[in-house]
Amino acid sequence: MSSSTAPRRGYHHGDLRAGLIREGIALLAETGVAGFSVAKVAARAGVSSAAPYRHFPDREALLAACAAAIIAEVTDVLAAAAEQAGDDPVDRLAATAGAYARYVLDHRAGIDLVYFHDLSGPYHEVVQEESRRLTSALMDLVAAVLPEDTSWADTVEFVYVHLSMTHGYATLLRQSTPKDAEAYAARAAAAARDHITGHLMRLHGSTP
Amino acid sequence: MSSSTAPRRGYHHGDLRAGLIREGIALLAETGVAGFSVAKVAARAGVSSAAPYRHFPDREALLAACAAAIIAEVTDVLAAAAEQAGDDPVDRLAATAGAYARYVLDHRAGIDLVYFHDLSGPYHEVVQEESRRLTSALMDLVAAVLPEDTSWADTVEFVYVHLSMTHGYATLLRQSTPKDAEAYAARAAAAARDHITGHLMRLHGSTP
DNA sequence: GTCTATAATACGATAGAC
DNA sequence: GTCTATCGTATTATAGAC
Description:
homodimer, mainly alpha, Tetracycline Repressor, domain 2, 8 helices, 68% helix, elongated, DNA-binding, HTH_TetR (chains A, B), Homeodomain-like_sf (chains A, B), transcription cis-regulatory region binding (chains A, B), transcription (chains A, B), HTH-type_TetR-like_transc_reg (chains A, B)
């Protein structure tokens, strides 16, 4: 019974697969996709450069697993922010923009994997699955903001634009001042609110 | 006089420096920063892998030169789009969002260099110079949209958000359907218009 | 100013011991 | 499942011929 829970030796890991994904995400946050390599991830996890190939067939598969994990985490972060924002639909949607900005500021380069890597290859079904989860969560929040008779296509389009400006603001932001994250998150939320307001104005056919 | 205008030999180039930047931009558009290498750029330009080092001290300098050229081109494209949009300030600003989307669709991965690479190192004064030109051009367009008594800081913030959502929409867009660019550009412009309208509403203190 | 050749390094991936 | 060892390849950058 002595070997059931404790690691057998120094090089043994309880769950190397999970550890590699964790270290992969950390490496991506520091260097971006350009600086990502299987060897570096392995070194960070404290194993040899051959070990990852027991868990992932090639570099691309490890990268895809990291991307899926990042998207999953973002989804959870946005959902939590909406939950915490209260009952008003506009507040809830705007809060996701602020939370996204905060996330990108923390994970810096990590997010570029999701937006700049070609996700159409093999192994990427997992990534697309997580992307659908994220989109789905936002669909619910957006549907609560738009009028009840809004078509599915228009709702999707609004999700698209909301995520776009949220992502764009957060990444531009990352370039400049890295401090005072809360102030920037608040401004990201305010920008999202402007967009929501303007869109509702257009729907109502009035102009300022 | 026979050697003054014509190339002397097969390996001779009139302006290799410019050619390297041109091919570097094309390579970035195809592969992104991760796939960028001095050797590949040299091969595309039809010279040996050592030749670029006569014109750029290292890889980073070539990359910086490409980034500066990309930003300069974007600046020109946005200015031309505003010019072509007519006299209404809102039309002119919204047009830049559409033009940006069109540019990113054409140059795909190329733009990530500008937004995801660390631009704080050496050689990057040129990049920051071009960035300032872009910001400055947008400042004029935004100032024409906002009320005359708007502070400089608020104008900068609006430029920031406008560019953010413009960039975000264009890059998200690049991920999905690559066809029907004009329709997407029109929607990018419409999204920018929503943001402008919503912001003006907030300034006027009214709600939808 | 461009070439050929090369050094030093890092990477992806595999083979075989344990 | 992880190790050590290794092959093949691509990269950055330099040296020296022309």
